[in-house]
Design brief:
This is Ig-like domain-containing protein. Pfam families: Ig_3, V-set. By secondary structure, this protein is of the alpha+beta class. It is built from 3 helices and 26 strands. It folds into 4 domains: 103 residues, Immunoglobulins (Immunoglobulin-like, Sandwich), CATH 2.60.40.10; 78 residues, Immunoglobulins (Immunoglobulin-like), CATH 2.60.40.10; 109 residues, Immunoglobulin-like, CATH 2.60.40; 36 residues. The structure holds 2-acetamido-2-deoxy-beta-D-glucopyranose (NAG). The site of 2-acetamido-2-deoxy-beta-D-glucopyranose has 5 residues, from loops.
Amino acid sequence: MSSSETLLWITLALCAATGGSEVLYKKRGQVVMMYCGDVDTRITNYVEWKHNSVLVFKINTKRGGIIKGSAAVAKKAKPIGDSLKIPSVEAGDTGIYICSGVDINGNQIRKEYKLHVVSVSVSPSDTVLISSGVTLRCDVEGDSTAQVQWKKPSGAEHHGSPGNTVTLKSVTLADAGQWTCQIKDNGGKEVEKIEQVITVVGLLQSPAEVTAPLGGAAQLPCFLPDPVSLRIMGGGWAREAPTDHFVTFSRKVSGLHWKDTDILSRVTFNQQELTTNFTVTLENVQLADAGVYVCTVDFDGGRSLKTQLNLMVEEEREAAVGSSFGEKRVLGVALWVWFAVAAVSFILIDLAVIIVIKHRRKKRRTFFVKRTPRQPIHRTEWPPPLPRPEHSAVNIYVFM
Ligand SMILES: *[C@@H]1O[C@H](CO)[C@@H](O)[C@H](O)[C@H]1NC(C)=O
């Protein structure tokens, strides 16, 4: 055996004895359980656990005695048999954990874990106002070669290149939902993932336009679709120019209320106590009221949301476009006049036809009598009178 071969054998034997190092990725707050040796054969005489070379505790499994060490994790770590349990891991618990001892047969045992605590953070908060910025971080503590990647709520699409940070400069409603930080080992296998829900808060955007009849009422909608965890400090409605609020609300000891002092007499709202609905109704709308109206909601921390709409004032319409039958017009004359004219003409034509026919019959009778003056004709032999023409036939005859 060459010296290099001997070295290889020694290394392999050492690895087999120590069992190598097991790498763990755990979310902050998770329970971590680390076993000493194999689960099946962990019948030990005594073991000691060290965190980054500092003693956590030494357990005499035979007699049941425990000696606590000075490692920070010792305060919360619990011995379970010869295992070490951390009920809720923190970033500071990251590091190398080594268990060493003697098993029941007197053999040395050694087990090593490399623990990485993974944590997700969102700034400024996981509830974000629409169009504002947010940064998502996914940190793997310790000296890790794992690949970190954020996945968008839609799931399939990867957000940008791999990296532990995602910065959105101006969030939209599409950014709301569940984001996932995926951690893969060097072999590309997913070892851990952490979900983070982002809530996007926005005022209702539509309708962009409200139409009100002159003298009528206009409802100017402004509300949050859902109650939000952010604290609303105040807000109000303003004409785009001048920018002064014509109605405001603000937080008092008892909650969010409309201010009574500066309310125009024509503005009303149903609730005095405000939660999500800042809709106002403008009564007796005038032509001068038309224009752009802006609703503002101010949140804690100086952040605010705005929504605007365009108020259109409609004057009364002319009767010409009325839809009732009597008001319809053809060539500038009301339809009912055309119908009257048609009815009268029909009666007149019929009368004319009847007069013409009666006149003709008289003439025909006179003709027969004149033609046979010497042969007196018996009344019964007279040819039958012409069949009285049908009404429609007469009409045709007249028009031919
Ligand atoms: C908001 O309040 C108005 C009355 O001021 C009401 O008509 C409207 O339906 C409310 N909107 C919502 C979404 O609750």
